[in-house]
Amino acid sequence: MKLNYLQLCNFRQFYNKTPQIKFASGERNTTVIYGNNGAGKTTILNAFTWVLYERFTSAFASPELLVNQRAITEANLEQAVECWVELQFEHDRKLYQIKRKCYANKISDIEVKYTPTKLFMLVAGDDGRWYTPLEAAEDIIERILPASLHQYFFFDGERIDSFFRHNQEYSIAEDTKELLGVKILDRAIEHLKKAKRTLQEELQELGDARTKELVSRQIKLEQDIESLKQELKDNITKVQQLEQHKLHLSRQLLDVSGADKIQQLKTKLVSQQKNLKKDLIQSKIKLKKILSQTSHTVFLDNISDRFITLLQNLRDRGQLSSGVKQEFIQQLLDRQSCICGSTLIPETNTYNNVKSWLKKVELKNIEESAIRLETQVTKIEFQTSDFWQQLDQQQAEINHQYLEINRLEAEINSANKQLKTYPNRDIQQLQQQIEQIEAEIKNLILEQGVNQQQQSDRAEQLHQLIKQITQHKLTENKQQIAQRRISAAQESIIRLNEVRTLLEKQFRLALEQKVQEIFSFISFTPYTPKLSNNYELTLVQNIAGVEVPVAASTGENQILSLSFIGGIIDRVRQWSQQNTLVGYDSSTFPIVMDSPFGSLDQIYRQQVAKAIPELANQLIILATKTQWRGEVQTETKSRIGQEYVLTYYSPKTDCKPDWLDLEQQNYSLVRHSLNNFEYTEIVTIKYQCKS
Fold first, then answer.
1. Partners of residue 95 on adjacent β-strands
2. Which of 28, 320, 515, 550 has its CA 20 to 30 A from that of 333?
3. Residues 644, 683: contact at Cβ < 8 Å?
């Protein structure tokens, strides 16, 4: 999971819609958000857990009061105030956008009614359109990063030591098994057990379908499909009109001196990007074709060797002979004349001797078939090698196309920025109009994807209805098929149990080793973390060859927790690249930490600051300026890619202003509110150049 941006609207301290908080990745993988206590750091941490899981950390007070109080106060009676958090992220080269919403309905000046929350998800297709996923949004999130594991990736640093001081409150063993994939095997076993019972129930004859009701639903679905088709047609027409308007504005830019070269370059880049996206779609189609047509050959090596060995054994034993044909022997018998000149009279010894050769050459046809099959089998080895070569080549081509698309997108954004900031006011206005049209076109195209998805859903529902209407017969061999399925389910349960035991043991030992490495790097104590069979983590000290348990301090527990999280991420990253059984096929993981250095002394703060950017592919730190100063700032500076400041506006008339000094620039942390409301603004820190 790679986090792209987070945006809030009327969520606790944050009034109205905030700017997008974009997250760093790559070499500079650290995003830092500075803010004083009470400014909204914990709110941002809980924005992640709320939009993903509708959960909150223990430090998040009054979680039922999510909607910004200023927005509620300013609303008219009976007016609903919208509150939402939007998160965009990538996973397995798919782009996801999720938004969780709720509303506060202002009944009176003293009464506010809150609505239940709703989660929405869109997935970007290769054609650049947003689509509603076929699965429930909650199921997709659960598969990418399950709710039971969120505390390891979104956590309050000041309370992180509680993972192991109060491990009875956290099922560490079960959570770790979830990451490993063992819990997936457990669920598979339970599902197989349920399937066995279901197969028995299916032996009972099903009742007739309610035909009239089904036909009525069929008519309704057909009407819905036609209505959706008309909406899509209208949408396409509107997109075409906007494209024409955009083209007209682009031509105006070409006519303006100074902007013509930039616009020409942008037009060229956009054209190249469109062509690349088309090529990418074709490359993926070609990859699917390669997999569907020739991937089976990689499983045939052992079978091919066994077949060749079997043929050779038959030949060695003389059971597949090569020689005269049956047709030749039969011709001699029909002519009653042997090749030696003897007369072949039926029922004589000479005739019977020649006739006996018919049985000896009966296997000739089999031999010829075997030779033809042997020729085909010897080609499999070359087909397998060719398959891997084609697969590698096609995947390399797709990766190259992704890189080129990203490069072109960056250059297009750069051209847009030049036009928006051009000294000529007319050029700026033309570019702003073009961007507004592009945004509207993008939304319409996304709506096209949703429309097409709805059409597809209704078409599938219609197909199922027609099947129910026309289907009246049960399969005659249903009982026999069910029994075979029951046997297969039982065999699968046995094998999955064996795999689970082996997988868990290997992963636990690898995890313990990594936790020990990280703890040893951060801590100066001679203690060693130990991971039991139940995934219980403790500290021990080796005294005269005997491992003695150690009562860890708060700081040591905090380091132990960070080591455990880092160990999990590192081992699952490696495990997911090497083992297809692990449930998480993505090897990228983010960490969002609120106040991670609060209770640590100077040496531990320095060591943790060195270690945490290495723990995850993305690191998002929420900290006060005092937590960040000194050794933490020094050790982390080279890894920072994005920085933000939370400016808190206090309604108190005597509030003391505060600020943060970064790169010889002052950023307000606390300011007086001129409208008597308490709220927080998100300010992006921008530098001219970052080396």
1. 90
2. 320
3. yes
Structure tokens at 571: 């081992």
The pLDDT of 196-213, averaged and rounded, is 54
Share of the chain above pLDDT 70, in %: 84
Mean pLDDT, residues 190-204 taken together: 67
Q: Where are the domains of the chain?
A: 2-145+589-684, 172-198+486-584, 207-256+441-473, 263-321+363-429
Nearest in space to 49 (alpha carbons), one of 116, 147, 119, 172: 147
Measured between alpha carbons, how far is 87 from 104 in angstroms, rounded to an integer?
A: 21
Q: What is the pLDDT of residue 201?
A: 59
2-145+589-684 has which fold? Rossmann fold (3.40.50)
Give Cα separations from 608 to 543, 590, 602, 603, 634 (angstroms).
27, 17, 10, 9, 12
Which has more confidence, 228 or 200? 228
* Structural element, H or E, at residue 531: strand 528-531
Q: 14 has which bridge partners? A: 11
- For residue 246, name the pLDDT band (cuts at 50, 70, 90): confident
Whole-model pTM above 0.70? no
Spatial separation of the C-alpha atoms in residues 23 and 29, rounded to whole Å:
8
For residue 15, report the phi and psi dihedrals to the nearest 5 degrees: -80, 135
CB 669 within 8 A of CB 625: yes
Contact call for residues 532 and 173 (beta carbons, < 8 A): no
Q: Is 314 exposed, middle or buried (0-12, 13-18, 19+ CB in 10 A)?
A: middle
* pLDDT over 90 percentage in the chain: 22
**260-294 and 380-420 helices cross at what angle (nearest 10)?**
160
Distances (CA, A) of 690 to 414, 641, 643: 17, 9, 12
To the nearest whole number, what is the mean pLDDT of the chain? 81
For 595-623, how does the pLDDT look when each residue is reduced to its tens digit (9 = 90+)? 776 667 778 888 888 888 887 889 999 99
Amino acid identity at 176? T
8 Å CB contact between 543 and 527? no
H helix or E strand, kind and range, residue 202? none
Q: Which residue has the higher pLDDT, 270 or 600?
A: 270
